[in-house]
Amino acid sequence: MFITRKAEFSASHVCRNPDWSDAENEEVYGAAANPHGHGHNYVVEVTVEGEPDPVTGMVRDLKEIKDLVNAEVVEPFDHRFLNKEVAPFDKTIPTAENIALEIWKRLDGRLTNGSSRLHAVRLHETSDFSVEVRR
Amino acid sequence: MNPVLVTASRRYKFSASHRLHSPLLSDEENRELFGKCNNPFGHGHNYEVEVSVRGEIDPQSGRVVDMASLDRLVLRLIVDRYDHRYLNEELSEFRTEIPTTENVGRQIEKRLAEAWPFVHPALEGIRVFETERNMIEVEHCQADKPKRINE
Fold this sequence. Notes:
The complex is a heterodimer.
Chain A (H helix, E strand, L loop, with lengths): L1 E12 L8 H8 L8 E12 L12 H16 L2 E2 H4 L10 H12 L9 E10 L2 E6 L1
Chain B lengths: L4 E14 L8 H8 L8 E14 L10 H16 L2 E2 H4 L2 H4 L4 H15 L6 E8 L5 E5 L12
Parallel strand pairs in B: 1-3
Antiparallel strand pairs in B: 1-2, 2-4, 4-5
């Protein structure tokens, strides 16, 4: 069984590879290459896989997931310019793909409890584009 | 698990009309089975298609797919073909097949799979939303994907 908890954060980013020319960056990232940055209301879905506990009837206490996601993702990312304020995005381009992977790395291992564990991280950058990292 | 394998999903929209009617059933049976969707004049929806691709994150771009190329592909093959059309009468694939969401989804997956120009990433599957409440999902079967037991 899978249980999913949603969280939101708003942040700005710029997608540019410093080894490429302006024209190359523009071609790959379009408007997202604007060096001044731009922002999104990101929505992250964290999915844990497991079976309901026979005593509590829950796969996992949702508050535990909420608190971890708040501490590891929402607090450090919300209302930040990711490239300038949140490691590793000073070195890694903060595409939705890389942000989702970073969220996965921050959560994986910390949601393992008995037979339940992190299954997927899905990051929605807009209503038309999302990225999923899963086991 | 290889954590660098990532699925990216992109949504596209088209508006089209259709009518659900099976030539194998009587008019009364069609009315009973399809209800309002059997209205002889057809009716329309704002469809949304979610295309999911799966691959490694390119270390240079930080992306799984070149979004502009994917957009061009889906616009050319799907949106331009279906947008503002009466599916039953204007699309050859629905002369013989009833344009249910299931069949629309199967046709979209087939068209994308046949023309898929990328070595990486792979087409993972598609989802078609006929309304906010009706959605069907078509997985793309790949030769290298292990089949499920009982399949």
